[in-house]
Amino acid sequence: MTAPNTLIELGVTELRDGFRAGDFTAREGAEAFNAAVAGGKALNAFIVETPEHALAAADAADAARAAGDVKPLAGVPLGIKDLFCTKGVQTTAASGILGGFVPPYESTVTAKLFAAGAGMLGKLNMDQFAMGSSNETSAFGNVISPWRRNDGGNAPLAPGGSSGGSSAAVAARIVPGATGTDTGGSIRQPAAFTGIAGIKPTYGRCSRWGIVAFASSLDQAGPMARTVKDCAALLEVMSGFDPKDATSLDLPVPNWERLLSSDLKGKRIGIPKEYRVDNMPEEIEALWQKGIAMVRDAGAEIVDVSLPHTRYALPTYYIIAPAEASSNLARYDGVRYGLRDLPDGANLQEMYAATRAEGFGAEVKRRILIGTYVLSAGFYDAYYTQAQKVRALIVRDFEQAFETCDLLLTPTAPSAAFGLGEKSDDPIAMYLNDVFTVPASLAGLPAMSVPAGLDSKGLPLGLQIIGKAFDEQGVLDAGLAIEERAGFTARPGKWW
Amino acid sequence: MSVDSATVRRVAGLARIAVSDAEADALVPDLDKILGFVEQLAEVDTSGVAPLAAVIPISLRLRDDVVTDGGDRDAVLANAPQAEHGFFAVPKVIE
Q1: Is residue B26 less than 8 Å (CB to CB) from chain A?
Q2: Are A494 and A488 in contact (CB under 8 A)?
Q3: CA pair distance A106, A86, nearest whole angstrom
Q4: HSE (CB half, 13 Å, CA atoms) of B59?
Q5: Rounded Cα distance, A396 and A379, in Å
Q6: Which of A342, A397, A444, A466 fits a 20 to 30 Å CA distance from A188?
């Protein structure tokens, strides 16, 4: 019997391996994390807690182990972002418009995780419909980062977004790992803000089936966990061809975890000069230089590269993502699921408009309106078609850079975590958080954030590695090289 | 170009989101700011560039034309705000 407070110190692969070795039962692990979740309510990381799901999976894992059958993630309970449909468990994408929605089916990614023996601790809070960078747009309230500045103040900080419940829960060690989704940085930016690792794989690696859609040409699921190795283990299970997703990649899933190597000899790592943006804090620049020294120490050759259209990535994203969202979110009409607002005497059209006015949050409405505007007659070519052309140029920039390098190294975000409320008045200031993460999303490339240091206020900072399409291994390997050298052991003091 | 309150109300009508006049007025500066931000794309020379169709080159798959699921009426209706006689129910459409 291992003490529960020791078990929650373990990450995904440590839990898996300890369970396999018989150091503890899966039930002990699930009970320890269930208790940690129940004790972490001040973080508001969960929308729904599902301790019974975690226990059932654990009991099944214990019984199977007794019969000599050990599945890849047996003994590992996880947090699941509320964007993944989970059969029989409320799924709302943190929006009022999906209030009370209980999916009669399981998303492909969660089905794969559960078939691999993992259990679910609960559904994690997030920015509403994954639209946000601070987890301040959830209909279920803000997630509070477990981190605090070292200035003695207790200002609540943003855990990043949109996968803010995932990042906060992993950083607080109330879950060993979590699913996230990334449309423009929603795995990588919250990972950087909370001192954990997270990878967005190549577009198409993880099936989008059963994930509430935001911007379908950009949405990708991925894992968030404390270590690169844990991310590799989770990603292996989450990935794979799915005939139910028209853009699913029909490729074998490599053994990323087993093949992990922090030896970067022979690798050329590009440093894109356009990522040195105006007003970037010196601490971010210094961290970047540290990262360059780390990968060089691991054997990589550093090359300067140029991605000339980088500055147009954010405006491109803020046309394409809202355009796709306005189309995807047209389905919320008060007829088939979720909220219905039917004012007295209202006709069908008035019911649609009242339901959508009542159910969508302010940021979601803003993006639907922008998307509707840029797709409307007379504006379509000037906005949407032009954005898709610039997107083609951004893709070409990456292709040209990858002629002279294998991977790119950049900061993940232009700052450490900010305080809740500090940026919510200005949408553009909020959007600028994703300046380093959006380009890889537009190009569908694998990219990950790894914790690499602390700022002067004691808050985590992350470095981003971007790889060629399908080269998750290269991304993970460089992430491991940085992880080994950064020796990031800082963790938030428990106040919750 | 800048948006005005009438434009916001028109777009909200297209998007089937009810907005009061006061809400429309309040949205004007936000939408103006965002559209002003994205309009910098106009300065990019894209002559001869085809709009991106798919980010990862994949070809659409074909499958055999057979029934693969169905018969799930009750599950489909289970989340409906109002279902009657095996159908979704909505306010009367024909006067």
Answers
A1: no
A2: no
A3: 5
A4: 3
A5: 25
A6: A397
Question: pLDDT of B39-90, one tens digit each?
Answer: 999 999 999 999 998 888 878 888 899 998 899 999 999 999 999 999 999 9
Q: What whole-number distance in Å separates Cα of residue A13 and Cα of residue A21?
A: 12
| Mean pLDDT across A412-421 | 94
Superfamily in which the A4-263+448-486 domain is placed by CATH:
Amidase signature (AS) domain (3.90.1300.10)
- ipTM comes to 0.95
User: Has residue A364 got a pLDDT over 80?
Assistant: yes
Torsion of CA A422, A427, A433, A435, to 10 degrees: -160
Does B85 contact A at CB distance below 8 Å? no
pLDDT at residue A160, rounded to an integer: 96
Residue A10 φ then ψ, to 5°: -85, 145
The reply to whether omega before A162 is within 30° of 0 (cis) is yes
Domain spans in chain A, listed from the N-terminal domain onward: 4-263+448-486
A310-326 tens-digit pLDDT: 999 999 999 999 999 99
Q: How far is A416 from chain B, CA to nearest CA, in Å?
A: 24
DSSP chain B: ----HHHHHHHHHHTT----HHHHHHHHHHHHHHHHHHGGGGGS--TTPPPP--SS--------S-------HHHHHTT-SSEETTEE--S----
* DSSP secondary structure letter of residue A253: P
Pick the closest to residue A438 from A279, A165, A220, A123 (CA basis): A220
User: Residue A488 is encoded by which pair of tokens?
Assistant: 């990031």
Give the total residue count for chain B.
95
User: Which residues of A fall within a CB distance of 8 Å from B7?
Assistant: 373
